Amino acid sequence: MTTILGIESSCDDTAAAVIQDGVLLSNIISSQKVHESYGGVVPELASRAHQQNIIPVVDQALKKAGVSKADLTAIAFTRGPGLMGSLLVGTSFAKGLSSALDIPMIDVNHLHAHVLAHFIKENKDDSNQPAFPFLCLLVSGGNSQIILVKSYKDMEIIGQTIDDAAGEAFDKCAKVMGLGYPGGPVVDRLAKEGDATKFKLNKPHMAGYDYSFSGLKTSFLYLLRDELKKDPDFIEKNKADLCTSLQKTIIDVLMEQLRKAAKDLGIKEVAVAGGVSANSGLRTAFEDHAKRLGWKIHIPPFGYTTDNAAMIAMTGYFKYPDGDFCPMDAAPFSRVVM
Fold first, then answer.
1. CATH 3.30.420.40 assigned to 3-126+304-322
2. What are phi and psi of 109, to 5 degrees?
3. Alpha-helical segments (H) within 231-334
4. pLDDT for position 160
5. What is the pTM of this model?
């Protein structure tokens, strides 16, 4: 019996999960509300909150799973990328617990784990996992990538943003409209009420499968600037239409490159992962492509779209049989190419 404790602390969510023989037993997440008033994550505040939350979160995960520390086979933890202060808390805790229990540590690439979230089983009969090879669109506040997944340990980035990520474009455009932080979910909600044809935004046309969202973001800002000169209440009067136009444009850009990659590689097994995969418009676009192009799509449950420890434990479960363990002197890293 293989029982993996997963620990996630890459940004502002402290999370712990237990997977036993590939089945998820618990997944506890403690979110930090302190950042909302700052319009973004404050690294120092995040690391302090992780120090307060990590012990009770791990304790809850073990209790909910019905296992004790002595039952654990290994500890998987997020080594990076992420905020250095936050990662240090999770890494230090994992090292201490690993040493105390005399069990191995498994370091996990956070982006790698988002892709493997599709393999989380909530019961032993769950068999709705992607078949290798498949394409995964990984979209979040910091990443927009198309990944060719050949196996759990063989992944190749075939396209990525050369500037801003899709999630960053959502959040920054939402911020200038006064929608607060995080802005992506607010844009998604308001987009359901608007007219997507009312405003036209620039769409970049990139070679290969890469992305660029800086031009789209600039186009949006210039639109607001010009219209606000004519009418100071322009944003308030057109909020829903602006959100719909923004969301549709971002999704069109994402899907165009993904569609191109799937056609060129002859792959119809296609997944989406990361925080932006919770967006209802993107989910609808995937369902539409499945109907039109015969894709077999994989869309994660909402609980596995944002940062969570279930995906960390799942990745650790895959790596454990290979003896791919982490030495005690390993340091976390804030940036990495997968």
1. yes
2. -80, 125
3. 234-265, 280-293, 310-319
4. 95
5. 0.92
Distance CA 52, CA 61 (A): 16
Dihedral of the alpha carbons of 92, 93, 96, 101, in degrees to the nearest 10: -150
Q: List residues bridging with 159 in a β-sheet.
A: 146
Cis previous bond, 182, omega within 30: yes
Q: Which of 116, 130, 140, 119 is nearest to 267 (CA)?
A: 130
From its phi and psi, is residue 22 left (phi > 0), alpha (psi between -120 and 50) or beta? left
Average pLDDT value for residue range 74-88 = 95
Q: What is the pLDDT of residue 37?
A: 56
Please give the structure tokens belonging to residue 214.
């800086």
Residue with tokens 């075939």: 158
Please, what is the Cα angle at 19 between 14 and 20, to 5 degrees? 155
Give 134-266's CATH code, choosing from 3.30.565.10, 2.30.30.140, 3.40.50.300, 3.30.420.40.
Answer: 3.30.420.40
